[in-house]
Amino acid sequence: MEHVIELKNVNKSFDRFQVSDVSLAFKKGFVTGIIGSNGAGKSTIIKMMLNLQQPDSGDVRVFGMDYSSSEKNIKDRIGFIFSEDVLYDELTLHDQRKIIAPCYRQWDDALFHQYCEMFELPLKQKMKSFSKGMKMKATLAIALSHHADLFIMDEPTAGLDPVFRREFLEIMQDIMLDGNKTIILSTHIMSDLSSIADYITYVEKGKIVFSKEMHDIEENYALVRGGIELLDSDTEQYFLSVKKTGAGFEALTSDAVAVEMLFGANVVIEKASLEDIMYYSQGGKTVAAVD
């Protein structure tokens, strides 16, 4: 299967943090969600995908090409959305379009105006008067208006009201209908990923915890509750994380079938959400908003 982005043994070091030995491959025609706590390294990985930061070592290829020789061709095919402001506050959206449109060979002015109308964005109003949600909508309208093959999104629904968040997800689903588009998005709103993601990549402390199909996660990850007397050095090996309390234990497993065969009716088994997986994987610590 064709991979739109490949990262091989990528490393990036900062003063107090590093992304270590990241190897990932993102498949064409699918939605991949990237999750992890604040400072996990997700934004750094996304910036290296876009060549906004360069790895200290390792290889990043997009559409089978290398940024060193094909940066313009690569970025022409990418629509990107960041939670932070990337547009000029002193310009109107109309003027933003005049600057941005020539950068893309397939810029579609009719499509841009269609999205501006859909999102109720004023073209002749300076960006500094836009709310955070309006700025995000403007960024989205631009990203959708040049027939990109790949969409890379860092907190795309940040600042959006619940109604538009639902509209956004519907737009993403429409984009994916032809099977040729690819979406990579980082978000702390796990319900968004549950509704549209085909794959989930979990990043923590600069390393990949896992990169799995959403179906695999839903089928195999589970929360298990039972009496403390059921635990010993052998049974605890079936769990990724165990919390012991006065009333018994709570644990996370990635093999619900094996746990059910082992414990039977002596435990309660429930499907684990993405929030559960992050919470228990960090030893039961409260998970902060995703960066």
Instruction: Please give the number of β-strands.
Output: 14
Q: List the total number of helices.
A: 10
What is the residue-averaged pLDDT? Answer: 91
Q: How far apart, in Å, are the first and last alpha carbons? A: 30 Å
> What CATH first level of the largest domain would be assigned?
Alpha Beta
Largest sheet: 6 strands, mixed
CATH superfamily of the largest domain: P-loop containing nucleotide triphosphate hydrolases
Tell me the series of helices and strands, N- to C-terminal. Answer: EEEHEEHEHHHEHEHEEHEEEHEH
Tell me what the CATH architecture of the largest domain is: 3-Layer(aba) Sandwich
Helix content: 25-40%
Morphology? elongated
CATH fold-type name of the largest domain: Rossmann fold
Strand order across the largest sheet:
6-7-8-3-9-10
The figure for the number of domains is 2
How much strand content do the residues show? 25-35%
Radius of gyration: 21 Å
Low-confidence stretches: 285-291
Which structural class is indicated by helix and strand composition? alpha/beta
